[in-house]
Amino acid sequence: MANNNQNRTRNSNVIKNAFGRLRQSSYLQCKEAMLRLLPAAVDEALRLHDAEHQRHIEMGDTYGWVLFYNGGVVEMDVKAKDSKLKGGAIGLLNSLKAGHKGWVGMVVAGMQPMYYFAVDYEQQVLLYTQDDIIANFSKYFKPVN
């Protein structure tokens, strides 16, 4: 009887440890995929700007992204022509909150001064970027077999 209890305890520990490794592995794989996807989304948004709108970066404004996990910031980045420039995107990213459980990634376009930028154009760029992420989702995330 004692041997049976030891086996159950050992089996329970093996199962608990296996699920712990699975949780850790899935966390790291999701994080890695999101940290590839979000910078690629910013690059795509910048690529979509035509010659008339390239001044977005030259004027000192930026695109940025933030990754949340269970409401906490995991990582964020801002892309600007001059690495010292942070523009409006950094302030916007710092003000964002994600109240959702799980992973949430956001891409933003900072537009300061507001009167300079074509807001409708920027919104359209972000919508195209969203479509690109959806179309290429499997490039970053692989199905679990």
Characteristic key phrases:
5 helices, elongated
Fold blueprint:
Elements lengths: L1 H47 L6 H4 L4 E7 L2 E8 L7 H9 L7 E7 L9 H17 L1 H4 L5
Antiparallel strand pairs: 1-2, 1-3
Helix pairs in contact: 1-4
Question: What's the short story on this structure?
Answer:
The chain has 145 residues and is α+β, with helices and mostly antiparallel strands. It has helices spanning 2-48, 55-58, 87-95, 119-135, 137-140, and strands at residues 63-69, 72-79, 103-109.
Notes on the protein architecture:
With 145 residues, this protein is of the alpha+beta class. The protein has one domain. Helices cover 56% and strands 15% of the residues. Strands 2-1-3 form a three-stranded antiparallel sheet, sandwiched between helices. A hairpin with a 2-residue loop joins strand 1 and strand 2. The longest helix has 47 residues. It is elongated. The mean pLDDT is 80.
